[in-house]
């Protein structure tokens, strides 16, 4: 059982998804119950990853390895460490939320909708647990397919454009990664990611491979200037699609930097770290201002996502400047902050998109101007919304604060100006979030439709309550999360600082 | 060596599949004349049976040691036997789809099946040909049957135009090929592939022999490139694909590619292997042009048959890249790609035929609108086929591209690999157009599927294989390499 735990996590939702398709849209209620039961089961199973995880080693755990394609020496090789394990649990957690959130809302082809999310869950767990580059790439690309269909079939008016743009952008990004993976295979004779960590590469090779990886991961994160697909995809996607996209798919990019860029091309990462840092700061500051002027709530949150993900890349690449011989704390803080930020952003962005989803289900508008004074008709809902908005703005005591604070501390060590610019998000972020809250929730009711809004039903209440608990718990006591990743991150820091030349 | 040039009846077993098929053709042709209308289906079943037996006979010859008979003009080796099994198998699948098409369009005639069998015979001769003459004979048997097959829908002007175009351009290509062969024969004094190989290996650089060999080589490459449909010899492909009856398009876009590949291997790898440096440059240019043109021009197509024609051109580009490497693994990658391409292309045309109805050709991309609502199962299969063609994992098309790219990068052509993948991304846009039609759009027209059960079943298996072989590609990759 233990040995095939990861396989179970990958294939159980995929086969359940196929089963749900076979049940068909006519028997939607059965399909829904099976989907939610599977997702809860998968979540419970994934918790045993946490309980049985040994946080004293950076080595891969729960490993599985069988030969897959002998022609290329490719193995079906799975395993997790302190970086991937929390992300897998985040995935299984978010999937439950989106399946429950789509319960009544999705009336067209409900079974297929549920099946798409279940399959995507399996594929994304595959991305986070693959230790073979081809296996990783196969899961990485395959996870695009359900998302393409989710946006294209259940999305808004302009869904076709958004779906195809999403697919092409990410596809184009990742083929360069494929070429560099093959290059390293030809050089080292193995597609094993761990073997690539030890592969010695010259400075030129590292530079090329670094940029090939960078394109793939930067599109996914997304970083300025390749972020333009995200607002389109988010705005058009159904609520569930936006949640998975923001909470998990963006993390695949961040994960790529941790798993590939830093350990495989440490010297190139060092050499080009300032470029990445500057792009991250542009994302944090400039995109923050872009978010300020949005009229569409989903677009606003999409831009705020880009801005928050900027902290992840900033934390990762600030380590080279923050590191002083003998004092690794600042660099470590940046890396751990980036990880915490990814998980916290998973909760907060999911919550924000669900909040918008609740409003959209009632009035079918995402425009800020449609609303105003929602608090009068939906007091309970407003309570949650304001909490999540505060977390989005980085209020201490919520999870949004922890990661950003750690990254800012690290950035200050790197260069005081980086810290100042990154810190400005606390103002800009608060500005765009709170201004939206003011216009949507507070004030007098301007639109007569708002008066008729009914407050949260039990289903919506429970989803938002679970997220609220997660956000506050992470904010007050993030130590358990940091503990599981600490040793792995230390090892990663070592790899990143050890020159391959 | 002398023994090789004698005719010995005890060696006839080597050509048993061909001999059987020829006899079967005669039987089917004669029998069809005496069958009255209600029994016309007998021709179909007999054809399938003949192909099945041919495949079994060829299968039994796998593993036999390399044998050359008929005065050195006919070879039996693993490549020949494995290719023959594949060709017979894919022709059988093609005929299952074909029957539905012919019935719906009132084209069901005995000649159709006889012509398919004849072209099959031609392809088998090409696969086993070991002298320039046998190869050419096989090619002509194939081509003449194909010209006639296209024109079988004689009341459609498009089909006649396609047949004529194919005939005229095909004749020019055959002429060029023959011209090249005569050059080679003139300087080496032999039409036998083995002799040519020895001669080419011994020719000194920059000698007069080398010059003439090179001259002949260029014409041979042109002839082969024409048959494969590589740029700049691709002009016939879109018109013929669009004009021909869909069942013929399906046949001519799939099985003959194996035969053309075999001819390429026989002439260029076996015969002119020593001159790889010369022809690999030509291949490189053609491969890149094919990938680029195939990917870009297909973007504008609204007719799905025409779109698939350009997609074929781009696939051919990838196949040619495998030969640029000059190593056995590279050739194996090309063979693997061809097999994968046939699996995908067969399924894609099968889907088009599936949507055909009495007098209605479903050849527009927009004919797929709303398919996911009316038939979710077949929409899902078409999704798999299209994404596989685009090279998205976990479908088989990805592994074919991976294998080729790995070989290309291993040979040191990283820039070429990068160009190829960028165009692969561009080409994914038009495959997504089909997905878009099926899933994101809806049509008011009810899509009814009138195909019989056997076609639905075979098509489903065919398309599911795209995923299944994609999950377990190892056996096919090993097989593709083992034939060299």
UniProtKB/TrEMBL annotation, chain A:
Ranges for domain NADH:quinone oxidoreductase/Mrp antiporter transmembrane: 131-426
Listed GO MF terms: NADH dehydrogenase (ubiquinone) activity; NADH dehydrogenase activity; ubiquinone binding
Chief site of localization: membrane
Protein name stated in the entry: NADH-ubiquinone oxidoreductase chain M
Presence of the UniProt keyword Membrane in the record: yes
Residue spans crossing the bilayer: 6-24, 31-50, 83-103, 110-128, 134-154, 166-186, 206-230, 242-260, 272-293, 300-322, 342-360, 381-410, 416-437, 458-477
EC number(s) per entry: 1.6.5.3
InterPro entries membership: NADH4_N (IPR000260), NADH_Q_OxRdtase_chainM/4 (IPR010227), NADH_UbQ_OxRdtase (IPR003918), ND/Mrp_TM (IPR001750)
Keyword Glycosyltransferase: no
Keywords: Membrane, NAD, Oxidoreductase, Translocase, Transmembrane, Transmembrane helix, Ubiquinone
Family to which the UniProt record says this protein belongs: Belongs to the complex I subunit 4 family.
Domain NADH:ubiquinone oxidoreductase chain 4 N-terminal span(s) in chain numbering: 43-120
Coiled coil: none
């Amino acid at each position: 059982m233990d040995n095939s735990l990861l396989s179970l996590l990958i294939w159980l939702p995929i086969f359940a998804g196929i089963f749900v398709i076979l049940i068909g849209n006519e028997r939607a209620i059965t399909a829904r119950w099976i989907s939610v039961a599977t997702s809860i089961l998968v979540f419970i199973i994934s918790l045993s990853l946490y309980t049985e995880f040994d946080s004293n080693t950076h080595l891969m755990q729960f490993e599985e390895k069988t030969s897959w394609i002998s022609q290329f020496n490719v193995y079906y090789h799975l395993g997790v460490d302190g970086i991937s394990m929390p992300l897998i649990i985040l995935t299984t957690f978010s999937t439950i939320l989106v399946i429950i959130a789509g319960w009544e809302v999705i009336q067209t082809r409900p079974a297929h909708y549920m099946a798409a999310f279940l399959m995507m869950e399996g594929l994304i767990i595959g991305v986070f647990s693959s230790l073979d580059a081809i296996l990783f790439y196969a899961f990485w690309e395959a996870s695009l397919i359900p998302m393409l269909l989710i946006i294209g079939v259940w999305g808004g008016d302009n869904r076709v454009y958004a779906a195809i743009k999403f697919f092409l952008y990410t596809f184009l990004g990742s083929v360069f990664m494929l070429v560099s993976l093959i290059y390293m295979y030809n050089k080292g004779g193995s597609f094993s990611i761990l073997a690539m960590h030890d592969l010695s590469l010259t400075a030129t090779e590292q530079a090329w491979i670094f940029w090939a990886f960078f394109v793939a991961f930067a599109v996914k994160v997304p970083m300025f200037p390749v972020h333009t697909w995200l607002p389109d995809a988010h705005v058009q996607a159904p609520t569930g699609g936006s949640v998975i996209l923001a909470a998990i798919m963006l993390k695949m990019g961040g994960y790529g930097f941790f798993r590939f860029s830093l350990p495989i091309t440490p010297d190139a990462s060092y050499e080009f770290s300032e470029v990445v840092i500057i792009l991250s700061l542009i994302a944090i500051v400039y995109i923050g201002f872009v978010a300020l002027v949005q009229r569409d709530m989903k677009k606003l949150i999409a831009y705020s996502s880009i801005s928050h993900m900027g902290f992840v890349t900033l934390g990762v690449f600030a380590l080279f400047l923050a590191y002083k011989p003998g004092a690794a704390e600042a660099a470590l803080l940046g890396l751990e902050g980036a990880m915490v930020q990814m998980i916290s952003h998973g909760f907060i962005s999911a919550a924000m998109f669900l909040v918008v989803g609740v409003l959209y289900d009632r009035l079918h508008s995402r425009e800020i101007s449609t609303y105003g004074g929602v608090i009068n008709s939906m007091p309970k809902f407003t309570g949650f919304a304001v909490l999540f908005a505060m977390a989005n703005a980085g209020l201490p005591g919520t999870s949004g604060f922890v990661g950003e604070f750690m990254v800012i501390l690290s950035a200050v060590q790197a260069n005081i100006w980086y810290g100042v610019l990154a810190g400005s998000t606390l103002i800009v972020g608060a500005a765009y979030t709170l201004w939206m809250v003011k216009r949507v929730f507070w004030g007098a009711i301007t639109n007569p439709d708002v008066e008729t809004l009914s407050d949260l039903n039990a289903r919506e209440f429970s989803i938002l309550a679970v997220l609220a608990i997660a956000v506050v718990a992470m904010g007050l006591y993030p130590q358990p999360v940091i503990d599981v990743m600490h040793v792995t991150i230390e090892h990663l820091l070592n790899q990143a600082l050890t020159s391959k030349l | 060596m002398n023994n090789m040039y004698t005719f010995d009846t005890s060696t006839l077993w080597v050509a048993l599949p061909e001999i059987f098929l020829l006899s079967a053709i005669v039987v089917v042709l004669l029998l069809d004349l005496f069958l009255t209308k209600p029994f016309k289906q007998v021709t179909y079943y007999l054809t399938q049976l003949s192909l099945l037996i041919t495949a079994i006979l060829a299968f039994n010859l796998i593993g036999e040691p390399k044998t050359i008979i008929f005065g050195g003009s006919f070879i039996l080796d693993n490549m020949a036997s494995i290719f023959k099994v594949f060709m017979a198998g894919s022709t059988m699948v093609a005929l299952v789809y074909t029957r539905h098409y012919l019935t719906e369009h009132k084209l069901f005639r005995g000649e159709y099946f006889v012509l398919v069998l004849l072209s099959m015979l031609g392809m088998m001769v090409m696969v086993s040909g070991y002298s320039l003459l046998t190869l050419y004979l096989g090619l002509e048997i194939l081509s003449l049957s194909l010209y006639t097959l296209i024109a079988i829908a004689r009341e459609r002007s498009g089909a006649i135009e396609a047949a004529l175009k194919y005939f005229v351009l095909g004749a020019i290509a055959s002429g060029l090929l023959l011209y090249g062969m005569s050059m080679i024969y003139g300087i080496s004094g032999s039409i036998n592939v083995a002799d040519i190989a020895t001669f080419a290996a011994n020719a000194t650089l920059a000698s007069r022999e080398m010059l003439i060999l090179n001259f002949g080589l260029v014409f041979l490459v042109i002839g082969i490139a024409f048959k494969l449909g590589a740029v700049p010899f691709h002009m016939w492909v879109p018109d013929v694909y669009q004009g021909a009856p869909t069942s013929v398009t399906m046949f001519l876009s799939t099985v003959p590619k194996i035969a053309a590949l075999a001819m390429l291997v026989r002439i260029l790898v076996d015969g002119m292997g020593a001159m790889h440096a010369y022809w690999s440059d030509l291949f490189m240019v053609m491969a890149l042009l094919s990938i680029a043109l195939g990917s870009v021009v297909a973007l504008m197509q609204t007719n799905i048959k025409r779109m698939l024609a350009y997609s074929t051109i781009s696939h051919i580009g990838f196949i040619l890249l495998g030969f640029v490497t000059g190593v056995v693994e590279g050739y194996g990658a090309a063979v693997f790609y061809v097999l994968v391409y046939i699996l995908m292309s067969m399924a894609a045309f099968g889907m088009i035929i599936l949507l055909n109805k009495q007098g209605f050709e479903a050849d527009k991309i927009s004919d797929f609108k709303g398919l996911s609502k009316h038939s979710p199962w077949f929409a899902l299969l078409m999704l798999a086929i299209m994404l596989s063609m685009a090279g998205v994992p976990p479908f088989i098309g990805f592994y074919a591209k991976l294998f080729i790219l790995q070989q290309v990068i291993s040979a040191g052509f990283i820039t070429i690999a990068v160009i190829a993948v960028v165009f692969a991304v561009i080409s994914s846009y038009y495959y997504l157009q089909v997905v878009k039609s099926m899933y994101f759009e809806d049509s008011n027209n009810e899509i009814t599927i009138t195909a019989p059960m056997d076609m639905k079943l075979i098509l489903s298996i065919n398309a599911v294989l795209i995923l299944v072989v994609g999950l377990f590609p190892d056996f096919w990759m090993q097989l593709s390499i083992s034939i060299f």
